[in-house]
Structures are given as structure tokens and as C-alpha cells.
């Protein structure tokens, strides 16, 4: 009977479609009461999240360390600071974001006035991922709250410490009649997906993105899909010039390489959706590029990077094995020019670089999402455009060059979610730029005001008076009336 009662308890606990339905009903009632629409409610919730991040910073850093051995410095910059910054911006700008936007009207409607009114969508679902499990969960939630919605967050089960911390903290800090966390994996997410939502915001792989979109289609629910892809970084040999001033003097290639390292291994060991996935450079320049990568990696992570505390580990054994398979494929194992060390017990893989891997190798097939970096070479740098354009559109594309014409051609000819010239990653920190994919890297965008817009309906409102009524629009339609138009 003890077993039976445990089973009964488990059954009661299982988050199935019925419980998901009850949750949505509860949140919808709350939304319909109008509470979440008020400016004051939105501000109070955003302030609570900012307070939560401030007060519980240590717990958050500890959970991130537990899930990914994420170095504290990295976690602070990319998870704590970015989340706080987004709360702060939303609090500063909310009044102006909520303000109806006046638009011009036409002679046809004269006299009249028109405006675009942003209204919350209703009850929204945010499904998040594991690589930046704190920031990528809260960033869309901040947008959803700013726009006045009730929201359910489903964090990733692959980062369990952060998932359970988020559940605990949000229960403690925010209004649970409108903001809830559901923890779980496929079963729980599927139960949530059976419900009717007013939008679904999903971050993760294209494979699951397709599942989300078909579930949403049943209810005609709009989706925002923040997916991934193989982000290329093209490096021109003309970066190899002296730069800087008398205090900080270095070479352009050194700057380019440091920024590539920061964007690849300094971002969760390459487990980042906008980490450079592969490099393309001119054949003649590859040796210089590799030498500089080798020397700078040593400066950053020491002689033995496996011992470095500044490199995140691979998230779990499944992903460790997936990456090992890419490294061990016969076609590429001889192409390794740096690294290759790995430790299954610690789930660590050293920064590993391959040169001239065949385009049909596994490592060039799907997004790598780890610390492996293949370098492709071309005779002429503009040949890289064809390589990039022969693949699905990436979430980000990078170019390092001093050549203005090449920059222009890159922007004109490469389609990607975002683009950054002469650096990596930092475009996501510019809140005036939308963040999102195109084609297979996703649909819809967010960050800053774009987050508010992502969770709002833009309602078109036209105000007419009883003046200005003309008979020309009314039957009977006579030739004389047509002439007057
Ligand atoms: P994933 O698709 O495996 O999982 C993400 C979420 O989907 C989790 O919450 C998980 O519980 C849920 N899920 C998994 N299987 C499901 C199923 N069968 N049915 C319903 N829900 C399911 O993705 P991942 O491995 O966590 O993420 C890796 C991918 O995410 C990479 O492609 C990366 O580029 C992308 N990514 C994109 C961004 C971005 O902002 N665009 C950010 C981080 C990661």
C-alpha cells in the first residue's frame, strides 16, 4: 500500500493535458480580469524580476555552474547582466512602448484620425533551452510581461538546476496568478502544447521547432521560433595590419582571432546559437590564422585547456558523444590542426580546430554547438558567399575585413538572422537591433522594443466623425458619382 500511495502521489503529480488545461484556464481568467494589462502591474512584475536577479545572483551563478560549469565571469556577463539590462530598459521605456502610435490618414477617410494600439495577446507560452538557461528563459518572459500578458515558462530539463531554481524564484518573487513555471521534458511540453495559447515563443532546435509549429497550427496560434544554424565567420587576409595606439598596440589579425575565440570558446564552449560555427578564409592566409588562434588560445586557456576553469563543459553525455562522433569521423580526424583532448568523465572537450574538412563531412552537416571549429579555405574570399548561400540561412554571419567593398557585398548578398562586421556575438547586446532568425534559423524576433512588439497585437484603430459624409460611396452607383471620385 506504501507503493500504491507513492504511485498515486506520482500520478497526482504528473503534469498531463488536464492539468495543463486547468492552468491555462486559471491564467486566462486572470488575464480576462484585466489585471495584467495595467501599467502598474507590469512595472511591479518587472521590478520584482530585477530584484530577484539582484538578490539571488549567487544562487543563479551556482545553478549555472552546476548545469554547465559555466565560468562565473561568463555567467555574470551573459546571463545576469543581460537579464538585468533588459528589465531596466523595459522599465525605462514601457510608457513610451505602450503609447498608441499616431499614423497619417488619407483623403478617403477625411476627416479622421488613426492610431496603432498595442494590446497584449493574452496567455502566452515560453519554451526555453539549456545553453543560456537563465537569460534565454527570462528575456522573453520580460517581453511578455511588458506587453501585459499572462505567461507560462517551460525551462529546459537539460539544465535541471537552473530550471528548478527558476521555478522556485518566480514562485517567490512574481505574481503567480499570472506568471507560472512548469518544469519538465517532452511529456510536460506536449501537455502544454495541446492547449490553446495566444502565442508560443520557442527557443531551441529546428527539429522541435517543427513540432511546436504543427501543434500551434491546430489552434491557429502564432509562433516565434528562435532556432539555430551554422553561423559562418569569413576572415580576410587584409586584417593583418597594425592597429591601436601607443598604449594598446596590436595587429588586426590578433584582434580578429581574439574576438573569434571570445565568440566561440568564450561563449559556453561553443554551445551558443550565434557562436561562429565554421571559418572561411583565403588558402594563403590559413597558416597565419591558425598560428594566431593557437597562440591566443594558449594565452586565454593555458597550456592545458582541459584544466582551465574558464571553459564551460559539455552539457551532458548525449552531447559529448554527439561531438565525439563529429571529431572521430574518418574524413576529418586527420584534418585536426589543434586540440582534440577530451574527458568523458568531466564532459570536457578542448578547443579543437580542423583545416579543410570536406563539405560533405558530418561536422559540416548540422550546427556543431560545441568547441569544434572547422576552417574552410577558398582561393578568392568572395567565393565564400557561394559556400554560405548553398546552406540554410544562418542565425548570424560574421565578416572580418578592412575592405569596404567586401563589407557591402557581404551585407547585400548574404541572408542571415543578424550580421556583425569585425566582431562576434556583440550585435545581440544592441537593444535597438531585432534578434531572430530567417529561413531555417527561425521566425520572428525580440530584444528591447521588439520583445514588447513580439507579445503585442498591433490593433489598427480609425476614428471618424459624422462629418465629411459623401454620397459617392453609396448606391445607386451612377456614372455621375464615378466621375466625382
Ligand atoms: P531542443 O529543441 O532539444 O529543446 C528545447 C526545448 O524543447 C526544451 O524546453 C525541451 O523540453 C523542449 N522539447 C524537446 N523535445 C521536445 C518534443 N519532442 N516535444 C516538445 N518539446 C520538446 O533544443 P536544444 O537542444 O535545447 O537547443 C539547441 C538548439 O537551440 C540549437 O540549434 C541552438 O542554435 C538553438 N538555440 C537558439 C537560440 C536563439 O536564441 N535563436 C538560443 C539558444 C539555442
From TrEMBL:
<dbReference type="Pfam" id="PF00171">
    <property type="entry name" value="Aldedh"/>
</dbReference>
<dbReference type="InterPro" id="IPR016161">
    <property type="entry name" value="Ald_DH/histidinol_DH"/>
</dbReference>
<keyword id="KW-0560">Oxidoreductase</keyword>
<dbReference type="GO" id="GO:0004029">
    <property type="term" value="F:aldehyde dehydrogenase (NAD+) activity"/>
</dbReference>
<protein>
    <recommendedName>
        <fullName>aldehyde dehydrogenase (NAD(+))</fullName>
        <ecNumber>1.2.1.3</ecNumber>
    </recommendedName>
</protein>
<dbReference type="GO" id="GO:0006081">
    <property type="term" value="P:aldehyde metabolic process"/>
</dbReference>
<dbReference type="GO" id="GO:0009737">
    <property type="term" value="P:response to abscisic acid"/>
</dbReference>
<keyword id="KW-0520">NAD</keyword>
<feature type="domain" description="Aldehyde dehydrogenase">
    <location>
        <begin position="16"/>
        <end position="461"/>
    </location>
</feature>
<dbReference type="InterPro" id="IPR012394">
    <property type="entry name" value="Aldehyde_DH_NAD(P)"/>
</dbReference>
<dbReference type="InterPro" id="IPR016162">
    <property type="entry name" value="Ald_DH_N"/>
</dbReference>
<comment type="similarity">
    <text>Belongs to the aldehyde dehydrogenase family.</text>
</comment>
<dbReference type="InterPro" id="IPR015590">
    <property type="entry name" value="Aldehyde_DH_dom"/>
</dbReference>
<dbReference type="GO" id="GO:0005737">
    <property type="term" value="C:cytoplasm"/>
</dbReference>
<dbReference type="InterPro" id="IPR016163">
    <property type="entry name" value="Ald_DH_C"/>
</dbReference>
Amino acid at each position: 500500500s506504501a507503493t500504491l500511495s507513492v504511485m498515486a502521489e506520482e500520478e497526482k503529480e504528473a503534469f498531463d493535458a488536464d492539468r495543463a488545461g486547468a492552468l491555462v484556464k486559471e491564467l486566462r481568467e486572470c488575464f480576462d480580469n484585466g489585471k495584467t494589462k495595467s501599467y502598474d502591474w507590469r512595472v511591479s512584475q518587472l521590478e520584482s524580476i530585477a530584484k530577484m536577479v539582484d538578490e539571488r545572483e549567487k544562487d543563479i551563478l551556482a545553478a549555472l555552474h552546476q548545469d554547465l560549469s559555466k565560468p562565473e565571469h561568463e555567467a555574470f556577463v551573459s546571463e545576469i547582466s543581460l537579464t538585468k539590462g533588459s528589465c531596466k530598459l523595459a522599465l525605462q521605456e514601457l510608457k513610451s512602448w505602450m503609447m498608441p502610435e499616431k499614423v497619417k490618414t488619407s483623403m478617403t477617410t477625411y476627416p479622421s484620425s488613426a492610431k496603432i494600439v498595442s494590446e497584449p495577446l493574452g496567455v502566452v507560452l515560453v519554451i526555453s533551452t539549456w545553453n543560456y538557461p537563465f537569460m534565454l528563459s527570462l528575456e522573453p518572459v520580460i517581453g511578455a510581461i511588458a506587453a501585459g500578458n499572462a505567461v507560462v515558462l517551460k525551462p529546459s530539463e537539460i539544465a535541471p538546476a537552473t530550471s528548478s531554481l527558476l521555478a522556485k524564484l518566480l514562485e517567490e518573487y512574481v505574481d503567480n496568478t499570472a506568471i507560472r513555471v512548469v518544469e519538465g521534458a517532452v511529456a510536460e511540453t506536449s501537455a502544454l502544447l495541446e492547449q490553446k495559447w495566444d502565442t508560443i515563443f520557442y527557443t531551441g532546435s529546428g527539429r522541435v521547432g517543427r513540432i511546436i509549429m504543427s501543434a500551434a497550427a491546430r489552434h491557429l496560434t502564432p509562433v516565434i521560433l528562435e532556432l539555430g544554424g551554422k553561423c559562418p565567420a569569413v576572415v580576410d587576409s587584409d586584417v593583418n595590419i597594425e592597429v591601436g595606439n601607443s598604449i594598446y598596440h596590436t595587429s588586426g589579425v590578433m584582434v580578429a582571432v581574439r574576438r573569434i575565440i571570445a565568440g566561440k570558446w568564450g561563449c559556453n564552449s561553443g554551445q551558443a546559437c550565434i557562436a561562429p560555427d565554421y571559418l572561411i578564409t583565403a588558402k594563403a592566409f590559413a597558416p597565419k590564422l591558425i598560428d594566431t588562434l593557437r597562440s591566443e588560445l594558449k594565452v586565454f586557456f593555458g597550456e592545458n585547456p582541459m584544466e582551465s576553469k574558464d571553459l564551460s563543459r559539455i552539457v551532458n553525455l548525449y552531447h559529448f558523444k554527439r561531438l565525439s562522433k563529429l571529431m572521430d569521423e574518418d574524413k576529418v580526424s586527420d584534418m585536426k590542426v589543434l586540440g582534440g583532448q577530451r574527458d568523458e568523465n568531466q564532459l570536457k572537450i578542448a578547443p579543437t580546430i580542423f583545416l579543410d574538412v570536406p563539405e560533405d563531412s558530418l561536422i559540416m552537416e548540422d550546427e556543431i554547438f560545441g568547441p569544434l571549429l572547422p576552417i574552410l579555405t577558398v582561393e578568392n574570399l568572395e567565393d565564400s558567399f557561394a559556400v554560405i548561400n548553398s546552406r540554410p540561412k544562418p542565425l548570424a554571419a560574421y565578416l572580418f575585413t578592412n575592405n569596404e567593398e567586401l563589407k557591402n557585398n557581404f551585407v547585400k548578398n548574404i541572408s542571415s538572422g543578424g550580421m556583425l562586421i569585425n566582431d562576434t556575438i556583440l550585435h545581440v547586446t544592441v537593444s535597438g537591433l531585432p534578434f531572430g532568425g530567417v529561413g531555417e534559423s527561425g521566425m520572428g524576433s525580440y530584444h528591447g522594443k521588439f520583445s514588447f512588439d513580439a507579445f503585442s497585437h498591433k490593433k489598427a484603430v480609425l476614428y471618424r466623425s459624422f462629418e465629411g459624409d459623401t454620397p459617392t460611396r453609396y448606391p445607386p452607383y451612377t456614372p455621375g458619382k464615378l466621375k466625382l471620385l
